[in-house]
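Q&A FORM
Asked by: J.P.
Topic: structure of Phosphoinositide phospholipase C

PROVIDED:
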Amino acid sequence: MASLLILLKSIQSLLAKLGAVMRKIKSRTWKKQRYFKLEDDCMTIWYKSKKAGNAHSTFSVSDVEAIREGHQSEVLLSIADEFPAERCFTMVFRGRRANLDLVAESAEEAESWIRGMRKLIENLENMGEREKLDQWIWDWFKKADKNNDGRMNFKEVQNLLKMMNVDMNEQHAHRLFTMADKSQSGTLEDDEFVLFYKMLTQREDVLRVFQRYSADGQKLSLSDLDHFLREEQLVGDNVQQYAKQLIELYEPSDRAKLLNAMTFDGFLMYLGSAEGSIFSPQRRGVYQDMSQPLCHYFISSSHNTYLMEDQLRGQSSVEGYIRALKRGCRCVEVDCWDGANGEPIVYHGHTFTSKILFKDVVSAVGKYAFKVSDYPVILSIENHCSVEQQRVMAQHLNHILGDKLLKSTLDGKAPIRLPSPEDLKGKILLKAKKIGGLEESFSGTEDSLTGEPSDEDEVAEIDGDNLHRESVRSQGKGTAGRGAMLWPQAQTGIGYKSKQRLSKELSDCVVYCKSVRFNSFKHARIHSKVYEVASFTEYKARKHLREAGTEFVLHNSRQLTRVYPSGFRTDSSNFGPQEMWNAGCQIVALNFQTAGEGMDLNDGLFSQNGRCGYVLKPSFMREVEKTFDPEMPQKLDGYNPVISGQQLPKVNIKEDSIVDPLVRVEIHGVPTDQAKQETRYIDNNGFNPVWYDTLRFTIHTPDLAMVRFVVEDYDKTSKNDFVGQYTLPLTCMQQGYRHIYLLSKDGTSIPPSSLFVHIRITGLK
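REPLIED BY: S.T.
REPLY: Here is the structure written out as tokens.
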């Protein structure tokens, strides 16, 4: 740990200036002074107000994803006339935590914090696995060293064990303490604490595996490691070469490297690395064929993207778009309404949600659309605007997005099939209502006002789900005007049809994603165009899936379908996306702002293929000549995990509480595959519980199966507390002995909390 300490000390001296009074800004009227400083560990930011007495708050540098300079948030933009950009910056946190907007006393001080924080973030991102573990140990040392004397007495060690979820009798703890106290000083210093930690974290589960394959019980020879990789990890090709690479990468002992051998420490390092992860490294990058039609992919999609909270009184913010796009989302929703001064606004209509400008949303999308993925972004427009403000929308789209906005088909012809994500790289597509079809555009008849445009179903369905919402106001007064056309729109529960006019300028921005009203699968098969997109509430989609699953899958092999949450979900909760994927629905829109099982599954599915937001559907869902019924799949594979866990986080705020962990393994897929099983719970051990429980599942359609590992703190008197989870596609799982690094409820990592599992997938006859 000495090298890490030297590194931290040098950064600390470099960033010694990081202690200052700054203004924390929440709004134009909420601007309060806080004292911020970087603590000695160079990992913790400490801050307090002058009036708070001894009360203070802290957060870890590891919680901060990025630093934005200047007026790069809505809050800081709102006070731009009061504080210059060079004194302002924003700390952007991981997950769903609100950003921290700050104003320094001077431009120099702001620059010092910006540069210092970026250096710390960069340092963290460049840490290897061993350095991260050293950092974690050092963090615990600092927490336990209550009197800050750089050493720990036995009482401090006892308190540390409780903090670390370890229930150990005093006699055994004292024996380990004495063994680690090489200086016999009655305290543990840096290296002695590392030794104590190693004794505490002795991995008996891994040691058993190591000794089973080690000929001498001390090391794995090249032949031993080759045998382990073939038998357990099911490595098939160039095994000896791969074994040599692992030794070179993960073996810390130079002597062992010379012998082409791996010690137990090296074996631990390998199993804790990306190579030893449950997620196959070959599936992390873009590995799928990206040249197929758009409708052949599942597309990461967001519902009511502008909302940060609930659907009735929640805050609307461009930050919602930034966060969704940075998570790889490729389809975002924009609810557009007439605003003041001729500027369209975005909000959840007829509610108390706050309002933001349409042009600010377009700017954010233009800036962040391709930060994490080059593949196309779809702007799903729910249009409630007058013709005049629709024209303003079209102006903003063209002016702000420029060449990124797709304005015509790629080959200048009416399409007979949708283009591919590869064809559309770097492009932003508009999904909205359109006057007529693409065929009219190329035949020169698009200006005729006699043709009736197709119905768009989405607003009517939303009205049906939200009877409390008012109907979209009629635009029937006066004439349609130049470049506008009347749009008949069915109003569920209203009893009449109002007509909305569309501006030609906005209509022309719609190319491959024309919103239409769905009639029936038979009607769509005969009359629909490949560029037409139907939208369903979760209830309607479920009904179609139940009554005509095979036809639904077939429909989705030809054109795009969007499914969105019921309007009754005013708390922004999510439905389970898996059943919609089972039907081949591509645009399954979820409330990204709400953590939980729905978003865990979404994050899990799109964690593959470079996190690019597009996942190729299985071949049986893409080929028109094949028929797939999600209700009646064929039996294909069996799957068995065996489990142990390490360093699970505390979930109970009581100081003397220790986790009683259990693991639940859930299979999400076609209905016959849906299953869950639990291990027994382990009393008072969140540090290194071992279950050795075997859970067996039968999987009929592995190409659609998602596996979710959930750790909970067992409570016999109330609902279990959530500890952590990890979700991934079954097809991305590596077999053998693997580590699973757990994620928080918010989807952020909680190192070094992990599960250690043995996975075997066997074919069934």
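FOLLOW-UP: The longest strand covers residues 749-763.
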